[in-house]
Task: inverse folding
């Protein structure tokens, strides 16, 4: 398996004499054959600025840098795939942070690109190739024209056409999971927030956060347009907003109004679940699905990343338990990172957290972050690193009634055949 690297113009090469390496946190490591799958459709190869590619010289067995002005290369995977290793590199400028993406180790073998990853969900619904740009543009124009005073549709049109957000695109294509952002404020200061970063962070937020409070009528218009089929999902809590439960009053009003007019589809919230009283109100209004974002079930790790304001991980657990007890299908948006999530203590804590909260689904989501910056703020490992592949196998063994996936599903999913090995 040959090392993959790029020149300064972004041209990608495979090295004929160097074997590829990956990273598990700080540790540069070999890539095993059973960790590799063909590069999935919808993936993107990217050059990692401020890095130097590292490989094994096949002739000597020594670890070496590629000589010259070259960068390491990583793959950005579509939903449905969980990375097992980071690309093998060292920083050429340690003062610079990589853009906020989830970089995966990529190699060249058997005349094709392969990545260190595992299929964890059906990738069809979140494959960018299934979003026709011409059809999308037509539907954006149609709905914006139909609701000219709806600021949410105007906001989402930029998310769909400018940022190519698939959830926003679904809102206009009126299919699957659609977006309805509601909040410009947040009760957390996430280190890797993709919609708002302080000037001193060194990161550039890849999205612009919404800057207005929507009216209930604007929200209900989008919800009623989207909830037209039994399998449709409309979701509060998007990458372009803060914490949706900070706007619990308008969410509760909107859910009640919509449910007076239709019982079709499912209402979801993507939330940090720290505002337990607000979450209870939203659940009682008629919520169907709830996905809670977390990076750890350990307080010190959680607090270092989320920087929660006036709530704790215990509040998150209480919110999940309340929703589960009320019949809401609950899941976690588990932000995973090779060399951290697969620590022994992290695995043990998460298994107990899942058991206490009654989760139905663990959504394994590749953390978009500069690795060095992230590793610099979180606690050091206290136990053995088991590897992402073994971590997933442990979850499967210890949590047999919990689904491992990658995105939200309707209730039908939990009672049907979920085999995804045939979709590649």
Result:
């Amino acid at each position: 398996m040959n090392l993959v690297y790029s020149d300064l113009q972004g041209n990608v090469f495979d090295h004929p004499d160097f074997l590829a390496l990956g990273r598990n946190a700080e540790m540069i490591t070999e890539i095993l054959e059973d960790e590799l799958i063909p590069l999935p459709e919808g993936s993107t190869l990217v050059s990692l600025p401020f890095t130097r590619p590292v490989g094994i010289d096949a002739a000597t067995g020594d670890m070496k840098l590629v000589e010259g002005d070259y960068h390491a290369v990583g793959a950005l995977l579509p939903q449905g795939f969980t990375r097992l290793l980071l690309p093998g590199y060292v920083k050429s400028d340690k003062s610079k942070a990589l853009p906020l993406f989830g970089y995966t180790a990529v190699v060249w073998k058997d005349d094709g690109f392969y990545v260190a990853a595992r299929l964890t969900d059906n990738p069809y619904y979140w494959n960018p190739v299934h979003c026709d740009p011409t059809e999308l543009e037509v539907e954006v124009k149609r709905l914006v024209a139909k609701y000219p005073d709806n600021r949410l549709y105007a906001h989402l049109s930029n998310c769909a056409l400018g940022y190519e957000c698939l959830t926003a695109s679904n809102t206009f294509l009126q299919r699957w999971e659609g977006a309805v952002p509601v909040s410009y404020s947040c009760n957390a200061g996430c280190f890797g927030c993709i919609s708002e970063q302080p000037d001193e962070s060194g990161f550039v937020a890849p999205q612009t956060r919404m800057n207005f409070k929507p009216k209930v009528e604007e929200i209900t218009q989008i919800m009623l347009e989207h909830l037209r089929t039994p399998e449709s999902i409309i979701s509060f809590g998007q990458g372009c907003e803060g914490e949706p439960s900070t706007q619990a009053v308008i969410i509760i009003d909107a859910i009640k109004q919509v449910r007076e007019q239709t019982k079709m589809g499912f209402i979801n919230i993507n939330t940090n679940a720290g505002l337990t009283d607000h979450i209870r109100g939203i659940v009682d209004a008629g919520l169907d699905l709830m996905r809670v974002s977390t990076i750890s079930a350990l307080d010190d790790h959680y607090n270092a990343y989320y920087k929660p304001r006036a709530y704790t991980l215990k509040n998150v657990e209480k919110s999940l338990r309340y929703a589960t007890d009320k019949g809401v299908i609950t899941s976690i948006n588990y932000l995973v990172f090779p060399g951290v999530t697969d620590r022994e203590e992290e695995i043990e804590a998460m298994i107990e957290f899942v058991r206490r909260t009654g989760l139905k689904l663990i959504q394994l989501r590749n953390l978009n972050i500069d690795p060095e910056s992230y590793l610099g703020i979180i606690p050091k490992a206290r136990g053995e690193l088991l590897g992402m592949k073994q971590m997933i196998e442990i979850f499967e063994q210890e949590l047999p009634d919990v689904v491992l996936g990658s995105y939200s599903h309707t209730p039908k999913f939990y009672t049907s055949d979920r085999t995804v090995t045939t979709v590649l």
